[in-house]
Specification:
Elements lengths: L60 H6 L16 H15 L6 H8 L3 H4 L6 H13 L13 H18 L15 H13 L7 H31 L5 H15 L6 H9 L10 H22 L1
Length: 302
């Protein structure tokens, strides 16, 4: 992943109006799918989203921008200002100060531009969030899936890679969900999860449900890890082990064994006196989910 802290925006290429195009994924049969360009108008231009004949699809402005379907402003914007620069500045702010630091005014200040000039490229902060998420997530790395591995190992690789993004950029966990995956990089990650389940015999609806289940677990576990880390830091604990020992001592004082016998039993085991490995809970939860998917695969085989 390109380091956007240096001013780049991962997964982005093309003209100023494009927030990045996803690399095409393999089709279920193993072929490499060619990227399909938007249908053109008779005069050679692109057909705007939502026109008659496209099945009634009306793309939000942020999604149009991500796919490069929106026209760039032709007059009025500050020279040198572009959608790439706006999104890159917003991502840097979020990385350094958190999502709460991102506002249209603050991004404009970072770029030395007026707030109103940004609205020629981004219509609202919610749209900016979508483009920031697309840029910071980036496209799936080459070789994410191992052709020689089974579905379980590849789905675990996919989940681990997604978690890595959240751990590097925890502000992504606070971005409001605006809809199902529709931007290029989001769709590319979705493609890789579905591809990981090739050979399972699972039908499309089950593969989709498994993808949603795993993605939801990854985000939830990463959010909890981030919040626990923040709480420990706020408590002034010198390391995770000290924080856990403080917690265990506090519970021993508060949770009387006669009232909370099972809590006392856990405390007596000493399991809360030391912090576990940073990946322990993630691996435990993911393994249990994949155990359940394995049952589905085995039933299908049977």
């Amino acid at each position: 992943m390109t380091d956007h802290r240096a001013g780049g925006t991962p997964g982005r290429r093309g003209d100023d109006g494009a927030a990045g195009r996803a690399a095409s994924g393999r089709e279920p049969g193993g072929r490499t799918g060619a990227r399909r360009e938007p249908a053109g108008r008779p005069g050679g231009g692109r057909e705007p989203a939502g026109r008659e004949g496209d099945g009634g699809s009306f793309l939000p402005p942020a999604v149009e921008a991500a796919w490069g379907l929106r026209e760039r402003p032709t007059k009025g914007p500050r020279p040198g200002l572009s959608l790439d620069r706006i999104v890159g500045a917003a991502v840097r702010l979020a990385s350094e100060e958190g999502l709460g630091a991102v506002s249209m005014g603050r991004v404009a200040k970072e770029l030395g531009a007026s707030t109103m000039s940004l609205y020629r490229y981004v219509s609202a902060k919610s749209e900016l969030y979508t483009l920031m998420q697309e840029a910071a997530t980036g496209a799936p790395p080459p070789g994410l899936l191992d052709p020689g591995a089974d579905w379980r190992a590849n789905l675990a690789r996919w989940a681990g890679a997604m978690r890595g993004i959240y751990l590097r950029e925890p502000w992504l966990l606070r971005v409001p969900v605006s809809g199902p995956p529709a931007t290029p990089n989001a769709v590319a990650w979705w493609e890789q999860a579905l591809l990981a389940m090739d050979g399972t015999g699972l039908p499309p609806e089950t593969r989709l449900s498994v993808t949603m289940l795993v993605a939801g677990f990854v985000k939830s576990e990463a959010l909890m890890a981030a919040e626990v880390g923040e709480a420990m830091g706020a408590a002034g604990a010198d390391g995770a082990d000290e924080a856990m020992r403080r917690y265990a001592r506090t519970l021993r004082r508060l949770a009387a064994p006669e009232t909370y016998p099972r809590v006392a039993w856990v405390l007596g085991s000493g399991v809360l006196d030391e912090a576990g490995g940073p990946d322990d809970e993630f691996r435990f939860g993911l393994d249990r989910i994949l155990d359940g998917v394995a049952v589905l695969v085995e039933d299908r085989d049977a």
